[in-house]
Every structure is written in C-alpha cells, then in structure tokens.
Design brief:
Layout: H1 2-34, H2 43-61, H3 72-90, H4 95-114, H5 121-165, E1 169-172, E2 175-181, H6 186-203, E3 207-214, H7 220-235, E4 239-243, H8 247-255, E5 264-266, H9 269-279
Parallel strand pairs: 2-3, 3-4, 4-5
Antiparallel strand pairs: 1-2
Helix pairs in contact: 1-2, 1-4, 1-5, 2-3, 3-5, 4-5, 6-7
Length: about 290
C-alpha cells in the first residue's frame, strides 16, 4: 500500500512538472486518430479533449485514494470516455478507434513516466499496474457506451420497421386501409393490431379495409391471428372488411374450418372501399367527361 501511494504521488509530481509536454503529446495522438482520415474532430476540439483528459487524470492522481475506482475522480474519467465514444459513434466513427485512442493515451502516459529517471523499477511496476487496471475499466466504459448506442440504434430501426410494416392510411374521413404483406406471426400480429386499434381510436374510424393481396400463404395460426384482428376492430365499433383473398388462401381457410361468420369479404380493395362507403352512406360516382 505504501509503494502504491509513493508511486501515485511520484506520478502526480511528474505530471505537475511535465504537464505541458504530456498535453502536447496527447494532442498529437488525438489529431492522429480523429483528424487525419476520418475528420471526426477539428484541431480545436482535439485540444479541448486532450486538455480535459489531462485535467481529469491529474485530478485522479491528486485525489485521496487514486487507486479507488469508485471515487468521483475515476467516475469523471469513465464519463469522459463514455461521452467521447458516444460522440464519435454519432459522427460515424468506430468503437475500435476510441479503444485504440485510449490505449495510446495509456502508452503515452507510461512513456512519460519511464523517461523520469527518479522512479525505481518497483515503483514503475506499481504505476504500470495502476494504469493497466484503470484503463481496463475505462475501455469497458467505452464498450458500454457503444452497446448503449447500438441498442438505441436498434430500437430506432425497430420502430421504423414497425411503422413501415403497418402502412395504415386514411383514404377517406372515417375509412382506413391496411394492406397486409408477407407473413403474419404472433409478434407481428400484435404490432399490427396495436397500431391499427390506435389509429381507429385516433381517427374515429368507422370502417377498416384489410387487404390480403400481398399474403401468399396462410395456415391455421396465421388465420387465427387474422380473425383476432377482425374481432378487435369490431370491438372498437368499426366495420372490418377483408379484401384480396387468393383462391389458395380461400381453400386453406375452408379446409382449416375457420369461422368467418360476421366477417365481410370482397374480391378487391376497390370493392372493399365501395362497401365501406356504402355502409357510411357515401355515394361515389364517376365524373362525367
């Protein structure tokens, strides 16, 4: 413990003496990683980042217990690297670059230490261990930031996919259309149903035309999902009209003994819309030339 304290005190004193040289070296490292090819930072920002890091590491070394990784000073360093990683990722950078940058900072600091002839081998080993343990945690903070950013990205993509997979449109006041394309599984049915019911409530829809032209295959599970959606629409007080059923799907529904009582079906989306307008008392006629 005494050796650790002496080593950290020695290193803190070294920083005080060589802080200018160390800052310049760290700035050069920052320019190499973030200015040269990827242009993720300008030189002024690199200077600010380097200065902040030097200030934080100096604060850690000057703290009551520099080896304590639960201290406010170390937490500030974790936050620094976490926010740096998030910033670079948002600008199109890679987590590997930030990790290599942190590793180079560690190497720079150790190199500066080794140039100080006043530190014995035993003390140097203690300081090397000090840096190794601390920077391992800091690199973990970088990866945590990366995973958090990736999770946020995936959630945004999932929300976007959910939006595009349920293209509900109000084609007339009180009339919604929902073209269903692909396969309906349990998960997708819940997403589509939730989006559809929310739109019915929001738009006070009186009729929903669900077009199955894009559905090529159907089985017992999918058909039950479809009926669930129809019943939910009816419970919301809207008329549900199914259109675009292929002959193969019609045969499958019959063979599966699916109860379609009370479900209105029409051959095409156009016929379904006419039925919806008819129920709402809307007359649509072709404009005379």
């Amino acid at each position: 413990m005494v050796q650790k304290k002496e080593a950290s005190e020695k290193l803190a004193a070294l920083f005080g003496l060589k802080i200018g040289d160390i800052s310049a070296q760290l700035e050069e490292t920052g320019r190499e990683f973030f200015c040269a090819d990827n242009k993720l930072m300008d030189e002024d920002e690199v200077a600010d980042v380097s200065s902040e890091f030097v200030s934080l590491i100096t604060g850690l070394l000057g703290s009551k217990d520099p080896h304590k990784r639960t201290s406010p000073q170390f937490h500030a360093l974790e936050t620094f690297f976490s926010e740096l990683a998030q910033r670079m990722l948002m600008r199109g950078g890679h987590v590997e670059d930030v990790v290599r940058y942190a590793q180079r900072l560690q190497y720079n600091l150790i190199s500066a230490l080794e140039r100080d002839s006043g530190i014995t081998f035993t003390q140097s080993r203690s300081v090397l261990l000090f840096f190794a343990q601390h920077f391992d945690e800091l690199i973990m903070a970088i990866f945590r930031a990366y995973l958090s950013e990736r999770e946020n990205t995936l959630k945004a993509q999932e929300a976007e996919l959910r939006e595009t997979s349920t293209p509900i449109a109000e084609i007339w006041d009180g009339v919604l259309t929902l073209p269903i394309i692909g396969t309906l599984d349990s998960s997708r049915t819940m997403l589509v149903m939730e989006a559809l019911l929310n739109r019915i409530a929001k738009d006070h829809a009186r009729a929903v035309v669900m077009d199955l032209t894009g559905v090529k295959n159907i089985d017992s599970q999918v058909s039950h999902h479809l009926i669930q959606m129809v019943r939910a629409v009816q419970l919301m007080g809207s008329d549900a009209i199914i259109t675009g059923i292929h002959p193969e799907i019609a045969r499958a529904l019959v063979s599966l003994n699916i109860d379609l009582n009370g479900v209105t079906t029409r051959a095409s989306l156009s016929d379904g819309l006419k039925e919806a307008f008819l129920r709402m008392g809307i007359q649509v006629s072709q404009k005379a030339n």
